[in-house]
Design brief:
This protein is mainly alpha-helical. Helix content is 84%, strand content 0%. It has helices at 5-8, 11-41, 45-81, 85-119, 125-140, 143-157, 162-184, 194-219, 234-266, 270-306, 310-337, 339-343, 350-363, 367-382, 386-399, 401-412, 419-450.
Length: 451
Amino acid sequence: MKENIMESMPIRKLVFSMSVPIAASMLIQALYNFVDSAFVANFSPAALLAVSLCYPIQSIMVATACGTAAGFNTVLSRSLGAKQYHKANQIILHGLFLALCNWIVFAILGWCFADWFVGLYSQDPAVIAQGAAYLKICTLFSFGIFIQITYERILQAAGDAMGNMYMQGIGALLNIILDPIFIFGWFGLPALGVVGAAIATVIGQQCAMLTGILIVKKKIKMFDIHPSEFKLSWPLIRQIYKVGVPAILVQSIMSFMTLFMNAVLGMFSALAISAFNVVNKLQQLVYMIVMGVTNALIPITAFNYGAGKTDRIIEGVRFSIQLAGVVVLVGMAAFELFPVQLFSLFGHDVQLEAIGIPALRISSLSLIFASTSMILCSAFQALNHAQESLVVTLLRQIVLLLPLVWAFASLAGIQACWWAFVIAEVISCFYALYCWKKIKAHLLASSTAMA
């Protein structure tokens, strides 16, 4: 059997070669909601607020898909590292089964509770109607995103990260092309506003899904996937969700943080909610590139953990931190130097910029600490230390951040609350480094004992 690049390629080259296409695909994924928001902001302020209010639910949906896929990917990569190829086929079938189950849950919840959810944050009938319509479409047809992300992880585990970029590229390109056509009613079509944005999004996701299925079927020969051979295994599902549940919580915590921020900022104005969500979307472009590195590191670390190659694990984590650091420094420079130009993508609302530009400049100072924590959390997940990953993320975005935001906003006003992000990330980063020091020592001790 051909040697897997996970164990043969120099670790720095492996991390970089896998990170670049995955980061590109993650960045393209972020563009779905970013592009939707940019176009609807030029449609109407109510449309921007409606999409902004729905964003946390979309993020929770993606977090569920990515978290389940992280557990699936970790178990799959370990099996490949241990040369258990028959088990790998069953793992893939279980990953697809769980993707369909997750879609059904979100489709039901979205259809039944969309109006209620949007109504929690706005009393404007136009915002409620537009937000509920957008959310119902995005959840009812979300099978595209769930299955697409599962096929992304199959490609990652096989060491074919370029397939992800093709999948995401096709989906995002369609979304970008269809957005203005459906939103503004080009070529004689009716102007559908946020409904048009939702339709463009799900079409892009479904086309990306079909592309992924085709790539795996045509290019990846190490797997022999036959749905008729699926045998439901609860122990295997527990294995997947042992990593998957903490990963879902880790990735969805940001969504719950956004919900809380929307509630706090809503006490000031609806415009403050829109400003924060614009800042969040801009920073997500940087975070998605970092997440590309973390998503590459998880299968690399899990594979080498299964193969007992401690030196490759440690070097991979070290290089990933350095690589992510370069990315966020570039992002920080852009946010500090060009905030006006970036906000202009969402229209030219002077009041929006007055709130949003200081928020962008202050909160972006936390990015370098956040990137280190994110890399270490991905290593913790792959090394069976998902608890540490969950604790660090809770500190970053719930335990430390939310009380600080509340206190700063209440005592010093809205512009002071952005410093809470910096303080929370600094403290969490040092705790993550402390955890990594202990885990690394254990890995080295185990490696020495085995030798």
